[in-house]
Amino acid sequence: MNAQASALGRLRGDFFGGLTAGIVALPLALAFGVASGAGAAAGLYGAIVLGFVAALLGGTRMQISGPTGPMTVVFASALVAVGGDLAVAMAAVLVGGLVQIGLGVLRAGGLVRFIPYPVVSGFMSGIGVIIVLLQSAPLLGVAPASSPLGAVLALPGVLADLNGEALLLGGLTLLIVFRTPMAVSRIVPAPLVALVAMSALAVAAGLQVPVIGDIPAGLPELVLPSFTLETWTTVALLGITLGVLGSIDSLLTSLVADSITRTRHHSNRELIGQGIGNLLCAFVGGLPGAGATMRTVINIKSGGRGRSSGVVHALFLLALLLGLGPLAERIPLAVLAGILIKVGVDILDYRMLRLVRTAPRADVAVMTAVFVLTVLVDLIVAVGAGVILSMALIIHRLARQSRLRVRPLPQVEEAGGVPAGDELPGLDSGIRVIEIEGAFFFGSASQLLDRVDQVIGTRVVVFDCSRVPFMDLSAQFALEEMIEGLHAQSIAARVVVPAEIHAQLLRLGAPQLPAAILYDELDRALAEARRLAAARPQAG
């Protein structure tokens, strides 16, 4: 009985989540279609086809897919580049879908797992702020700005032109979505309550507020993507751009969904599902798209947790296309704005924001940089910059943790062992030990070359790398360069490395690092160094 109730609860959540996401997706799909130059219907076709296919075949169960801003911009550029020829532009969409499928088959989606949490946090909070800023004007009954910065700059004009009736609807919507008791939301999501109640109020009271407006009707006609020898390079380049951009866009949305629901998506399956969806969009003249962050979050917040939520979203849009459009044409944009502002507030990463004062400064700096770039520049640029900044900080930390010390090896009796430090008495044996501890890589290799003056005038140098966990090619070259300089001054060298690095150096066949000077044990290397020092004159 409990299992049945749980299943019914999930279905109810998916239905309401998909329905709410579909209502929010409607004006966005129409707007993206118009902005692309292919027409409002193209946006709707893309939202239906991609939304349905990606929901069934993708790797993120609660993801809502459809036209997105970045994909619309690239497609609009493609349409202009091919002189407005829709068939050729759709060939680029087809190539983009194939690229996504190829990336999924090659298992490239797993790379998204390497995005650090501060990057995801800054991205999420940035999206939340973007949603709030962009919806501030529609909440007041004024046309929205095209960018977050534009929304801030336009605020004085928006306040001067505000529509009092729209503000009333928007304010009541915010009251409903923020204050509806959880007991009610579990049965009917607060966003859907606000949407139905406020739309009915606007119609009953005859309020003069901006609404969604006319919705295209009728099924799409078949489009056969085509290109010529003159356009194939343009089609290929734009298609690859669409494929890579759509993949990044979708996987970032998947990460946001994971963060909210504490689940894990299947990256490669998501890419394949998105690719098949975009490929089919090319044959119906639909706008290409990706996983849509805002629509996915509102689906989750309205109860959606399974694939059926994405299917409901697509079927709702299809029903409007087949004749139910008049039911949605009178929905006030101020009501949608109020619902979306709640989504924007919810998506802020409060867990990370609460730790701003106590978290490591480097992580806070990465989060802040990604947040600022997300809001002011571009989502993809922000994530790319965040990953690069995180990598640079990790390299800096590893380099600082690396230790390099040069110490003389005092002369002792054979049975006496090896002294532990520089302070023990004993005659100079003519041997210097260069101890390297920690990661030995391009970030720390320069320290070695800086110490060359400290070993001039000795007989043998032993490089103790026994506590080095890994060595990259830059470090190997630095070691070779150091040994070559020592040989030029008649100073012998021996190198102690862990067994794994020993095997790695032998496979590389480095000319200055032959098997004869490589050792797995420090004691053996020091014994050989003493023998060599006794047989060699002091270098001068």
UniProtKB/TrEMBL annotation:
Domain STAS positions: 430-529
Transmembrane segments: 15-35, 42-62, 74-99, 111-134, 154-178, 190-212, 232-256, 276-298, 310-328, 365-395
PANTHER family: SULFATE TRANSPORTER
Keywords: Membrane, Transmembrane, Transmembrane helix
GO CC list: membrane
Compartments, record wording: Membrane
One GO term of the biological process aspect: transmembrane transport
Topology in the lipid bilayer: Multi-pass membrane protein
Gene3D superfamilies xref list: STAS domain (3.30.750.24)
Annotated organism of origin: Thauera phenylacetica B4P
Main subcellular location: membrane
Pfam families reported in the protein's UniProt record: STAS, Sulfate_transp
InterPro entries associated with the record: SLC26A/SulP_dom (IPR011547), SLC26A/SulP_fam (IPR001902), STAS_dom (IPR002645), STAS_dom_sf (IPR036513)
Source domain of life: Bacteria
Keyword Cell membrane tagged: no
Protein name: Sulfate transporter
Magnesium listed as a keyword: no
